[in-house]
Amino acid sequence: MQSVDFDLIICGGGPVGQSIAILLAQRGLDAARIALVDMKTPEDAAADPRTLALSYGSRQILDELGAWSAIGPTATAIEQIHVSRRGHFGRTLLDRQDYELPALGYVVRYGEVNRALSARLSPLGLHLLQPAQALAIEENDTGVTVTLKDGRELHAPLVIQAEGGVFGEQQQKTLQRDYQQLGVIAHVHADQAIAHRAFERFTDEGPLALLPQDDGYALVWCVRPATGERLLALDDTAFLAALQTTFGQRVGRFTRISQRHAFPLGLNARPGQTQRVVAIGNAAQTLHPVAGQGLNLGLRDARVLADVLARERSPQALQAFERQRGQDRSLTIRLTDTMARIFAGSPQGSPLQAALGLSLGAIDLIPGARDLLAEHMLFGRR
Known about the structure:
alpha/beta; nine-stranded mixed sheet; five-stranded parallel sheet; 11 helices; 21 strands
């Protein structure tokens, strides 16, 4: 059985895992002494068609990584975000001009982000194990052993767990909640699309997001499981009619739709604290997609952890990281969890759901409320 020693092991080679590796190398760590273990081949990761919503703050991190120059030409800028409640008074509009930014965020494909990060990572000399699966992570007083599926053992003083996976297939963490919702995703076209404007529309069953992408929109429609199964069974014409009824006429008539997919939605956060293993990104907190904060939160994790480990690589450093990230993580979890639970756990048309519509109207009326919301969505709690 082959056994290899490293200074640091990263499990998970998605955008968050690759980002922390690049950041550590930029801060002076010997890349050859860092192992990155990932189940996917680079080709499979680059071909992933999923859509991601990046905040402007995440663009700054990717710029620091040297990856944005490759991602930017394929991205669609979000200059406005329109938030509303179906059938109720209350809406707010966030505009990039109010914050003197070129964009509030960007819509990108997972594969493009992964490809750009891989290109930055390749020349650094990191020890890449792809495809490889970590079957077990065992910790003792002096270090951590990662056992791979092929029998190899890797040893290091510290391990970063960045292999998130999807809700329902993860090991249960301290805070877990099944929202009993499905996220239905597709790409749609409309005949009066508003360039660079994203929509977050709250319905009786959950949020419906339209994110500008290319010449159409990336759709994320959160509904109860029975509704989701019914929507998936509809033909394209019937599905577009249902979408039209729910969303309304703000972008005119929906005309085309791609193949549809669905995935279960839940919260799985706060892994048990250990001395030598730290979780970041989806490995630390898998969130409801409302407000699109998952990857953005993970990139903020990576940046702070890189700064901490550049100063000291010890269990005390991991404790310092957890303290520094606590407020941003907790606030983002509470924000997304509260909005998801209002629809997942409240009867349709309940006073609690109506209150959300009123609060959307209040955001524009209360001085500073809209700016606080925008600040958190753009940069997180700082």
